[in-house]
Amino acid sequence: MSLKKNIIANYLGQGWTALMGLAFVPVYIDYLGVEAWGLVGFMTMLQAWLTLLDMGLTPTLSREMARFQAGAHSAQTIRDLLRSLEVIYGCVAVAVVGIVWFIAPWVATHWLNVVNLSAATVAQAIGMIGLVLAARMAEQVYRGAIQGLQHQVWLNGAQGVLATLRWGGVVGVLAWVDTSIEAFFLWQGLVSLLTVIILSRKTYHLLPPGERPARFELAAIVRIRRFAGGMAATTLLALLLTQVDKLLLSKLVSLEEFGYYILAASVAGALAFLVAPIATAVSPRLTELVAKSEQQVLIDTYHRATQWLAAVLIPAALVIAAFAEPLLYAWTGNVSLAQQAGPLLILLALGTLCNGFMHVPYMMQLAHGWTGFAVRVNIVAVCFIVPAILWAVPRFGAIGAAWAWFALNAGYVFIGVHFMHRRLLPDEKWRWYWGAVIKPLSIGTITVLALRYWIVLPSGRVPMVATMTGIGILVMGVVLWTVPASREFLRRQFKTLRGHVLNG
């Protein structure tokens, strides 16, 4: 499967998934309330933290599947590795369900600051969250395998359908069956179980038959222990960087204020769906090129990926940050909600932009099997963000956590990535900084601030959406022409179109 097709498929599939995850949020809040929506955010946070139990095995499996494509595994060894991870994940999933059910009453009464919901309702909802989390963990095994095998067109099609069922279908449940938060989580769990069945069948269909039935092999786990161990440590520290704000806020502020923060984080987090398609598609490709020692192709692929990422991410992030409050109002129709979440969204969007810059360089590190660097950098970053949040939130509220998130990611881009290039791509650092960060970010910022100053937004929600859409297209066009890879692509397309017109 070509890299271009995988990227296009990832944007279509993951874009639709992001749309489904965001489009119905105002409906959920209308049915459930902001406080209950905070529980949904709590589930999302727990799902992120439970990737610690992954122990780095899922990204390792994806990498090994890509190496299988390059001839580093036989059909039997890769099937044994997959079966070994299935056994491990099955045991972990059972443990997750039991632990979450056991601690649910304590979390409801001693951790979350609940005002309107009853403790019994919250405890029951948290218990059901355990079932959802177990199923979502199992999903990741097969999703990682299919990504590593580079069958991402099919994967994105399936995920788009399942996301529609997951997020759109629950609206029907809330409207016609039950408006409780428990019904929301029950539906999520059922769709996740269906997803596990579909993805597992597809994974085994893609793998060629082995010499014997697949079985648990301790040796298969031992062979990947070093890379998986590095990934586990990196995952732990990455979680502290990306989720510690939410974890601490769930304790330090009210569940309602936490709901506002989660709403802003959900919008800012949608930017990750502009990052993931490129990072997901390019990761197995970089791994394959490293395995084949094709250095120049590797460098060219790396720069094209980083520049295209900048071309699509920078305009979206800048528009969201510059028009945060109007955007939230146009989306939800709730003035108070937009005023509460708007300032948070500005900082979270800019922080997510900086975080997005790191993804392709990180994929390059994984392609080389170099996980130690990310561990060391993230240790330093964790030593900054945890004290910063503990100091800022009691004094300034949720906005203090948003400032810490932005400062952390800005520092990581301009310090951490420098050292990554010095080891792996010593002659490519300034090309990356200038072509993928400094130049497009500077020109994009000037453009969006000028538009924010000169354009008066209409008061109606529909005209406001139309105006901001036009602004987004204009900023996107400017940045696309600024970035070398996208500018060259546009030139080729223009020449082709002109040739068709002249010859037609």
Question: Would you spell out the secondary-structure blueprint of this structure?
Answer:
Layout: H1 3-23, H2 25-32, H3 34-49, H4 57-69, H5 75-111, H6 119-148, H7 152-176, H8 181-206, H9 218-223, H10 225-252, H11 255-269, H12 272-292, H13 295-322, H14 324-332, H15 335-357, H16 359-367, H17 372-396, H18 398-424, H19 429-454, H20 461-482, H21 484-503
Helix pairs in contact: 1-7, 1-12, 2-3, 3-6, 3-10, 3-11, 4-5, 4-6, 4-12, 5-6, 6-8, 7-8, 10-11, 10-17, 10-18, 11-15, 12-13, 12-16, 13-15, 13-19, 13-20, 14-15, 14-20, 15-18, 17-18, 19-20
Q: What's a concise summary of this model?
A:
This protein is mainly α and 504 residues long.
Description:
It contains 21 helices and no strands. Helices cover 86% and strands 0% of the residues. Helix 5 (75-111) packs antiparallel against helix 6 (119-148) and helix 10 (225-252) runs antiparallel to helix 18. It has 504 residues and is mostly helical.
Give the overall average pLDDT. 82
Radius of gyration computed on alpha carbons: 23 Å
Largest sheet report: none
> Unreliable runs, pLDDT <50, ≥5 residues?
none
Instruction: Quickly give the structural class.
Output: mainly alpha
